[in-house]
Structure formats: structure tokens, C-alpha cells
Design a protein that fits this description.
With about 325 residues, the protein is mainly α. It contains 16 helices and no strands. Helix 6 runs antiparallel to helix 7 and helix 9 packs parallel to helix 11.
Length: about 325
Amino acid sequence: MDSEDQDKILVVNTGMDTAELIQRVRASAIDQPTIDALSLTVEQLCCDYAHADARELVRKGRYWLNHVSVQLEKQLTLPQHRDLLHNAGLLALLVGCLENDLGDMDAAKATRKMALELGNESGDASIVGWAHEMLAWFHLTAGNYRAVIPAAQAGIIAAPSQSVAVQLYGQQAKAYARMGMSEEVYTALERGSELLGQLPYPERPENHFVVDPEKWDFYAMDTYRTVGRDDLAKRNAEEVIRRSVTTDGFVVAPMRSAEAKLTLAVVAARAGDVDGAAEMGMEALQHGRQSRPSLLMVASELDTELSTYGVRAGGDFRDLFEQVKQGKTPETDGK
């Protein structure tokens, strides 16, 4: 979403545009309408995560995090202080996720700790839960599978009835799958699915920090692929891709779509379709919006599957994969 569209949403909901909001935030005192407008702006940034340019979005996130941090030093009512801490926590989570996507792990780890501190300071279970979820994600993509389980469990304990717990069960399932612990995989999936069924459908499912059935299908897809349930993995992947594209062809969830295409490529490779797997894998690596650690993790599985057919099997994909691992940016599909 561009700045003009964001201004329209702000004006409709609060009567002020971004310029006026910035002016109010910079003022010596802050009122509730300004906090409400700020909350709407933060929510929109979290909704833009799935498709916006990561470098531009992280710049915006840091900008607003700085402004909110300044406001926290001012004299505030208790409700205002709580609301600002919540927004600061969300912004820190968002910035940390984007830093991770861009491959800046040192910055991502530091920003995650900031989010955890903000959540603990305000007693905000959701922020604390998502901070633990980020740590579980970091461990997963780094290959530290055993460390995922306690990190996710800490988040579940902090926010046992919130949507973040659903995603934490998903992270545990992913880790268990990679450790070959099938019974624990299905237990974690069952717990996540059960909790998701008890939660109301989110008002804005595109918000990165909520979990809806579509996001859960995406998580289950990864687990099914890893444990070798290719039929279920393929079913979920095809559905993820279908939901990721609007009727006019715009890819609203390119990172999910890329991992779904890699899943289909892995399934194709296992079935002996080396050329089809390589072609689908190359398409996945050429998405413009990427979460680098997650993409590399899943792409490496396809690389492993193709290697079983010989050193040059799927050579075009494997050459492109090497470029991506080295930090070179392939030509994108423009979406």
C-alpha cells in the first residue's frame, strides 16, 4: 500500500492524514485521537509486511518506532502509556522481522530483545509471545531445531490463548518434523488447530501478527513436506498459491507463494520430475519480496532432492540457488 492509500485510510478513520499525525506526535503533549491514529498507522504497517518492499518498510518502521519512543518519555496517562508501549512493541517486532528477512541477524536479534522488554514492561502477553515466536523462528532457520521447542513453549506460556500460540505450535511442529519426531509433529499440529478453532476470525487477517486458517495451512504445508506427506503438502501448497494472488494477478503474499512453489518443486523432484522441479524452484527464487532465511531453508531441501539425481540434475536451479546464497539478487518477476 502506498502513502496516498495510507492517508486515505487515516482520513476516513481519524480525520487526519499522515502529515498531521506526524505534527501531532511531535507536539509537546499527545491526545487520544493522536494515539488512535498512530495505532491505525502501526496496524497498516503490519498489514503491509507480506508484500511491501522490505527495505522501504523497515525504514518506515524505524521512523515510527523512534517517534513513539520519544513520546514514551513525555508525561502520559496510564492508558496512553500502555497504548504507546503496545505500539512500540509491535513496531519493534515488525522491524526485527524485516531485519531478519534482509539477512541482518545481529540487528534482528537486538530488536527482538527490545520488543520482549517492551512487552514485559507493559505486561502485554501478545508482544511477549511474538518476541518468543521470533526467537523460535530464528532457531528454526538456523538449523537449531532442539532450541525451537523451549523458545516456542515460553511464548505459549506467556500467551496461551492468543493467536500467537497457534503459530508457536506451528513452529514446534516444523522443528519436530526436521528432527524426525512424527508423533510430536501431529500433537503440535492438533494443539494449534484446536486453539485456532476457538479463536474468532481476525478483522484483518493480512496483519502479520495475527494467525488465521490460511496462515495455518501454510505452516502445516511445511510440516507435511518435511515428514514426507507429499499428498497433503501438495494440496496445501496449491491452495496457498491460489490464495496468494488476487483476481487481477497481484501477488499479495509473495513469501508464502514462493515457499509453496518450492514445496511443489520438492514433491515433483521426489516423483522424478527433475525438470519440472527445477523450473518451479527457479520461479520461487525470483520473487521480489523474500524472507531470506526461510527461503534458503526451504530451497536447500529442493537442492538436496535434486542432488539425488546427479551433480548436474536441476542445474539451472542449483546455479541460481548458489547465487541467492551468496547474496546476489536474481531478476524478479516484478510482483
